[in-house]
Amino acid sequence: MPEIQPYKPTERRGETFSYLPPMTPEKVRKQIAYLVSQGWNPAIEHTEPEKAFSHYWYLWKLPFFGETSVEKIMAELEACHRANPGHLVRLIGYDNYAQSQGTAFIVYRGGR
């Protein structure tokens, strides 16, 4: 798999998929479709790259309770990225039944 890069000890990585190259929009859509199919509630957060490892990220609007449209979630991710171009933007899927996060991954890495 030539696209997977070796880990460098000086790099800090975070969240699911962070050791892989950035996902294409189609791959992000598939992850969102999975999140929705599980019945999880999507939420979008963002933060400055230097604060990425703190426990507090800024919430972009309220979580999208009951949202099932992949395109609406993609549009909100893009809107958050446009409004905060230098920030990391992550998508979280909240599982109501387990009372935890079902998934969390960075969609936009700072500056990209």
Give a verbal description of the structure.
The relative contact order is 0.23. With 112 residues, the protein is an alpha+beta fold. A 4-stranded antiparallel sheet has the order 2-1-3-4, covered by helices on one side. The mean pLDDT is 86. It contains 2 helices and 4 strands.
Low-confidence residue ranges: none
- Following the backbone from N to C, one meets helices and strands in this order, namely HEEHEE
By secondary-structure content and strand pairing, the structural class works out as alpha+beta
User: For this entry, what is the oligomeric state of its chains?
Assistant: single chain
Distance between the termini: 23 Å
> Main beta sheet, described?
4 strands, antiparallel
Mean pLDDT across every amino acid position: 86
The total count of helices amounts to 2
Biggest sheet strand line-up: 2-1-3-4
Global morphology: globular
Total beta strands: 4
- CA radius of gyration is 14 Å
The portion of residues assigned to helices is: 10-25%
Q: Could you tell me the strand content as a percent range?
A: 15-25%
